[in-house]
Amino acid sequence: MVKYGLDYTRCRWILPLLLGIGVIFGIIALAGRGWLESQTLPYVQQASLWESCRRPSEGGDWSCESLMGYAWGRAAAATYLVGFILLVICFALAIIAFAIDTLRFNFIRGIGGLLFVAAVFSIMGLVIYPVKFSTEIEMSGINMFSWAYGFGWTTAIMEICLGFFFCCLPNYEDQILGNVKPTYFYSSP
Q1: pLDDT per residue as tens, the chain (189 positions)
Q2: What strands lie across the sheet with 45-47, from one edge to the other?
């Protein structure tokens, strides 16, 4: 990307594309019912960020209770949701930043800083949830934090990594814009 510059059409949209993938992963984490699941038979426990469901036996009906009745449930949902909203804002700002012909590198660095703030909020929600869930909700059998919870962590890790990319990109402003003279290692005899 640095070799060809950000005007190189295939490289220009890599960072906004990665942010878009992070937004999709965040949507999956928010909507997924697989934050916590029973690991072995009988499958009697299932939870999302919003509710916890259980059934008495393998053939019974699921009964669900909202986690929004707990203060920690509201805190986990709110902090993760704030992180997700900041990620969506960063995605929109990145599209705007890379769509204009003249890049504003300080603007790009600001997107990186906002991504770090989004990562802090996301990680807070991802830490509050398992700690308080396992201490305050009665669980039976062997349970595991499952695929939707993993998508939440993937989103948080992408926010951190992309924050570094967005913050470090302005350090290579001259190389990206093509303002650096090429160095040749040829000497005449």
Answers
A1: 445 545 555 567 888 899 999 999 999 999 988 888 877 777 778 888 899 888 776 677 878 888 898 999 999 999 999 999 999 999 999 988 877 766 666 788 899 999 999 999 999 999 999 898 888 887 777 778 888 999 999 999 999 999 998 888 776 665 555 666 767 676 666
A2: 63-66, 51-54, 45-47, 36-38, 143-145
The whole-angstrom separation of Cα 147 and Cα 34 is 6
Cα distance between residue 104 and residue 81, in whole Å: 28
- Specify whether the CB–CB gap between 91 and 16 falls below 8 A: yes
Q: Which residues pair with 64 in a beta bridge?
A: 53
Is the pTM for the entire model greater than 0.85?
no
The residue count for the chain = 189
CA distance 188 to 104: 41
The 10 Å Cβ neighbour count of residue 36 is 25
Contact 47, 32 (CB under 8 A): no
Say how far apart CA 124 and CA 184 lie, in whole Å. Answer: 50
Range 2-7, long-range pairs (CB < 8 A, 24+ positions): 2/172, 2/175, 2/176, 5/175, 5/176, 5/177, 5/178, 6/98, 6/103, 6/176
Give the list of residues 6+ apart from residue 69 with CB closer than 8 angstroms, or none.
none
